[in-house]
Design goal:
The chain is α/β, with parallel strands linked by helices and about 260 residues long. The chain has a single domain, classed as 3-Layer(aba) Sandwich (Rossmann fold), CATH 3.40.50. It has helices spanning about 20-30, 45-50, 60-65, 70-75, 95-100, 110-115, 135-140, 160-175, 195-205, 220-225, 230-235, 240-259; strands at about 5-10, 35-40, 75-80, 85, 125, 145-150, 180-190, 210-215. The protein has an eight-stranded mixed β-sheet with strand order 3-4-2-5-1-6-7-8, with helices on both faces. The longest helix is centred in the C-terminal third of the chain and has 20 residues, at about 240-259. The protein starts with a strand and ends with a helix.
Length: about 260
């Protein structure tokens, strides 16, 4: 595999399993031997805490990279998972949307920062905030592709047209190479008609773009972040861990097929 592939995980709806998918997909690929960087671009910092990085110990965060001219490498922290590194988020990031408005080349700050790392990582994942503001625009401008997590619940597809429209706008003006690389169904409960109906709706709408692997609703997946571990380390035999391993394999198959 040549070069670094940059993947943004985006959905302006909160609570769709976006950070969970970012952390656990990144961890599954790292454990498969790929060198992975996860950039936490969400002021809530769920990916940061989910990988066991203590907020109080962070000296350089993604905020410093975007607004203080710090290098991305200065902000990289190791995690307990071999081959997996994270650029953490702090609460400072909450003000970044407003601060970026007056900054030169405001939409391309993250792209420039990632470009400075060369080919050090096989994949860079960006966990976007649940909004369509300048932070998400930075992620979409830096990315080769977007993965959209969609929860199997009512209103799952609501607001999706706005996200797709924003992706088109970024493609038209800032990043012509950007594509929707996949849609991941999360919080799936095979016992309910609702989950099956939403899954079918998503597959009808997105076709082959939708991943075959679905992520189940799982207590263990919910518990793992409080221990600062991805599900693969916390409970490798759980349904959630098995699902993210399958998703990782499917992700790699798609990227191998593209080469």
């Amino acid at each position: 595999m040549s070069g670094t592939t940059v993947v943004a995980l985006a959905n302006q709806k909160g609570g769709v399993g976006k950070s969970t998918t970012a952390v656990n997909l990144a961890a599954s690929l790292a454990l498969a031997g790929h060198r992975i960087l996860l950039i936490d671009l969400d002021p809530q910092g769920n990916a940061t805490s989910g990988l066991g990085v203590e907020r109080g110990s962070i000296e350089t965060s993604i905020y410093d990279v975007l607004l203080k001219e710090s290098s991305l490498e200065d902000a990289v922290e190791p995690t307990s998972v071999r081959n997996l590194f994270v650029v953490p988020a702090t609460i400072d990031l909450a003000g970044a949307e407003i601060e970026l408005v007056s900054v030169l080349s405001r939409e391309t700050r993250l792209k420039t920062a990632i470009g400075s790392t060369g080919d050090e990582y096989d994949f860079v994942f960006i966990d976007c905030p649940p909004s369509l503001g300048l932070l998400t625009v930075n992620a979409l401008t830096a990315a080769d592709e977007v993965i959209i997590p969609i929860q199997c619940e009512y209103y799952a597809l609501e607001g999706l047209s706005q996200l797709l429209r924003n992706i088109q706008l970024v493609t038209g003006s800032l990043n012509p190479e950007l594509k929707v690389g996949g849609v991941v169904l999360t919080m799936y409960d095979g016992r309910t008609k609702l989950s099956k109906d939403v899954a079918q709706q998503v597959r009808d709408y997105f076709g082959e773009v939708a991943y075959k692997t679905v992520i189940p609703r799982s207590v263990r997946l919910s518990e793992a972040p409080s221990y600062g571990e991805p599900i693969e380390a916390f409970d490798p035999m759980s349904r959630g861990a098995i699902a993210y391993r399958h998703l990782g394999r499917e992700f790699l198959e798609r990227h191998t097929a593209e080469e």
